[in-house]
Amino acid sequence: MICPIRHAIYKATPADFIVTEQLAIEHTHDGEHLWLYITKINLNTAYVVRLLADWAGVPTADVGYSGLKDRHAITHQWFSIRLPTKVVPSVPFTDFIKPHLHDGESVHISEQVWHSRKLGRGTHKSNHFTITLHAITGDKAAIDDRLTQIKTSGVPNYFGEQRFGNDQGNIQKAQIFFEKILATPKPYRPNKKTAHRDSLLISTARSALFNAMLDARVADGSWQTAIDGDVFNLDGTGSIFVADIDDDIRTRLRTCDIHPTAPLFGTGTPKHTADAAALYDGVLGRDEFTVFCQGLLKIDAKMSYRPLRLLVRLLTWYWVDDASLVLNFELPKGAFATVVLSALVDELVMGSSSPDTSDA
Fold first, then answer.
1. What is the largest CA-CA distance in the chain?
2. Topology of 157-310 in CATH?
3. What pLDDT score does 180 carry?
4. pLDDT computed for residue 353 by the predictor
């Protein structure tokens, strides 16, 4: 797929990448969990968690958040802190954090409310993005045409580069992680001290396998159509089903009511069969993926399915000038804004000085 934008710069400033977490929940206004709606600039979510824990004098495990948000950005999201005594620290959070911030970094609490439960991972439904691209080279008409196509048909639902770490360093770490597991006859037992790291490396392996299977569907042009043996996902839900390919299935695919899927590899009886199984087995059978597949089976990671197509909701755009474009859109949790940009831009250059490590 040839991208209409040959080159563009993003994240030249934090205001060029704004993320607003969409979380629909009715707070109880009582309970021992203090929920805080925070705007952060040039800070990652994990660092804000540590600041909140230090401020409240609680373990980081008592601080909740729904999703990791970009560092080089302006982001709006909820956090929660477990305070059994319901006593808020006497030192204002803004005063407490001042010694811990560098130039260009900030955290602001715009709302706080008590709630009966901790904020759990994955509670949010979606994220809204406002992204500005600068120094664009490409034909404006072709760019507008591609955006119209994306608005109608979506983009391939890849895991974004953030999942794989700086310079894809997590791929090598995941390889070493699984080689150690496979080198011992002992069963894998998660360690609390390394649970977060292990989870990241397991996700890295499954994401790499999924992206390779999606690559194969993009290459043969079937990432948004059906092949024999496909498993389908009902749009906007976690529901999957199998069905013979008929006019009804083709219509539902064309109208984006359903999407073809690929497995997040693991244990369990595959639901995909026939041509889909042959294609995916061919990808998973590559030598480069042997350690990942054997390792995921040994740790008993359960197979699940992810849609191959990502719909870009509420997409609008406008040109600031001939070389600057502002995009507004919404993505479900687990989706990556950089994947949308990759469907539009061939050479996407980050304007800030260091890479991002976020998760949608």
1. 65
2. Pseudouridine synthase (3.30.2340)
3. 95
4. 52
Domain boundaries of the chain, sorted by first residue:
5-13+126-150+311-350, 26-122, 157-310
- Beta pairing, strands 74-82 & 17-22: parallel
In our burial notation (b when 16+ CB lie closer than 10 A, e otherwise), range 250-284 reads eebbeeeebbbbbbbbbeeebbbeeebbebbeebb
Give the pLDDT of residue 167. 84
Q: Is 54 among the residues known to form the active site? A: no
Half-sphere exposure of 153 (CA within 13 A, CB side): 12
pLDDT of residue 352: 64
Is the distance from CB of 265 to CB of 284 less than 8 angstroms?
yes
Helix orientation angle between 290-298 and 195-219, rounded to the nearest 10 degrees: 130
Given the residues 16, 30, 62, 70, the one annotated as active site? 70
pLDDT at residue 168, rounded to an integer: 87
> Under CATH, which number does the domain 26-122 receive?
3.30.2350.20
**pLDDT recorded at residue 360:** 53
Per-residue pLDDT, 302: 97
pLDDT of amino acid 9: 97
CA distances from 46 to 79, 151, 172, 201, 226 (A): 11, 32, 23, 17, 40
Question: Which residues in the chain come in under a pLDDT of 50?
Answer: none
